[in-house]
Amino acid sequence: MTAHYVGRFAPSPTGLLHAGSLVAALASWLDARANAGRWLVRIEDLDTPRNLEGAAEAILGQLERCGLVADAAPLRQSTRITAYQQALDRLVATRCAYACGCSRRDLELAVAPARMERARHAERIYPGTCRDGLHGKLARSFRLRTVPPDPSDGGAPSSTIAWVDRRLGAQQQDVATSVGDFVLKRADGVWAYQLAVVVDDAAQGVTDVVRGEDLVGNTARQILLQRLLGLPTPRYLHAPLVLAAGGEKLSKQTGAEPLELASPLLALQAAGAVLGLDTGGMTLGDWLAGAVAQWRRRWPLP
Ligand SMILES: [Zn+2]
Known about the structure:
Layout: E1 6-9, H1 19-34, E2 38-43, H2 55-65, E3 75-76, H3 81-93, E4 97-100, H4 104-111, E5 141-144, E6 160-165, E7 169-174, H5 175-178, E8 183-185, H6 193-203, E9 208-212, H7 219-229, E10 235-239, H8 264-274, H9 284-298
Parallel strand pairs: 1-2, 2-3, 9-10
Antiparallel strand pairs: 4-5, 5-8, 6-7
Helix pairs in contact: 1-8, 1-9, 6-7, 8-9
The structure holds zinc ion.
Zinc ion is lined by residues 100-102, 129-130.
């Protein structure tokens, strides 16, 4: 048993939990309970245009009906703006981040010639236009400099990030070549997910991130940010996803229905099956206790 474990579930209040998000919630709760740790809930409500009134409270209610109760009041990212600004200021001061004045049109033009070779990348790679200054343009967004400002500085963290996922094994990504200088603060003023997650995980003392496999591709960016900000890197476990009929991740976009909680036990059993658990138990409490025991055997901490 670990002496110190803090885990978290971090839903966006853009709608109710569905079968897929319950799997992520259950996995992080089980891992925290299996390690006698604390389990926190963080409401990722920064993308205000997408937030739905009352969704955060409704999600907390759904979790509670499933017996998944956080050990502290939920943290709302909308209350954390000062911390994100301080982190950005620090990155700018150390020349690890810079203002970008490119409009959407500038970016389309700049990226177009390189697009053919980079078709396999889902995201466009920013060509670094504003890395050395705005050249008279107004600052619109802020980006992370994935290539150290002085290549001879051997002390700067490399953009190649290697890490071990507890379920998926060894992972590696060169953030500079596969993602590029990614956005930390958007042109519309919204703080980027990557920066907010890293700042909040550190502030909440999170030791273990257990989340859906759809987020595995963000991990290298987050570890690079942790290193540049001098923050600890948690352990990671990316859990299996619930797939929609077409084979893509089940989400609101692929037609996920809000979780039917007439029987929380049935919902948990379905979520447990996705995680490879076959737990018995006629009551919610029995089922959860059995699932914790199975999880502990299956995913021991390294
Ligand atoms: Zn730019």
